[in-house]
Design brief:
Layout: E1 3-7, H1 11-22, E2 28-32, H2 38-47, H3 50-53, E3 58-62, E4 73-76, H4 92-109, E5 114-117, H5 122-133, E6 140-142, H6 145-160, E7 167-168, E8 171-172, E9 180-181, E10 187-188, E11 191-192, H7 199-210, H8 212-220, H9 227-241, E12 246-255, E13 261-272, E14 275-279, H10 286-306
Parallel strand pairs: 1-2, 1-4, 2-3, 4-5, 5-6
Antiparallel strand pairs: 7-10, 8-9, 10-11, 12-13, 13-14
Helix pairs in contact: 1-9, 4-5, 5-10, 6-7, 6-9
Amino acid sequence: MHKITIAGCGRVGESTAQILAKEELCREILLLDIHDGVPEGVALDIQQSASLLRFDTRVTGATDPAAMAGSDMVIVTAGFPRKPGMSRSDVLDSNLSIIDGIIDNTLRYAPDAMLMMVTNPVDVLTWRAWQRSGWPRQRVFGQSGALDTARMTSFIATQTGYSVKDISALVLGGHGDAMVPLARFTDIAGIPIEHFLSEADIRQIAERTRQGGGEILALKKHSSAYDSPAAAIASMVDAISHNRRRILPCVGILDGEYGQQAIAMGVPAVLDENGLVEIIELNLNPEEQADFQRSADLVRADIEHLA
């Protein structure tokens, strides 16, 4: 990938730019923001770490959306973060106009780019971006499942004491309190998680995963998570930039998969150089399907609010 634009110079945007630059996942990163001097300052700070972190990626900043011309991908992190006690849906109205403006600028200046949505509520805003852009669904997707799954993996590693490198987990559904951690598809070195943890422990980890972002927000009080979201974004960019055809959970536009239409949800998907090219449809048991449907109902209610 040659050029990636990150729309939004908050903590998630800045941390994402740092990781993408360090890993040299593209040749050029543009940080775009509406506040004069902020994107230029953030970019300069990151650029001055290049000799220390050993990367040749060029990092620049701008307030003029025309600077995004030539972007292969636009990552949208701009928007109002939630505050303690707020749900992700609570920031929908505040972030909608911001996202619409970014999408319109992308259509004008980077019409061949892919769009990765990060701003919350990410499921709803991924749907909005796809609807407003009119692009094929492979070019418009969101980051959440990779983050939710990473949180679940981390909690399992902490609980069991085993290496996080050997743990494989999976979280589906909306990026909210009704997300669906799937214990049946979770293992340590190929051994089902039930071998290591009691049913009560698994339920506790699933609930903590659902509240993972809120737990960080409640502890930090003045900011939400940004390092782990940035790492999740980078994992998706890496899969696309290197054409890896990795299966990662991310927000995709569903067209009949999992019995859902006209909705964006977290599902396992194949990422390669063309974007989100395939949605993996799992055979959920009745309980899992019911949980997925509950999560879908909440996302759909927010989508209907857009109309």
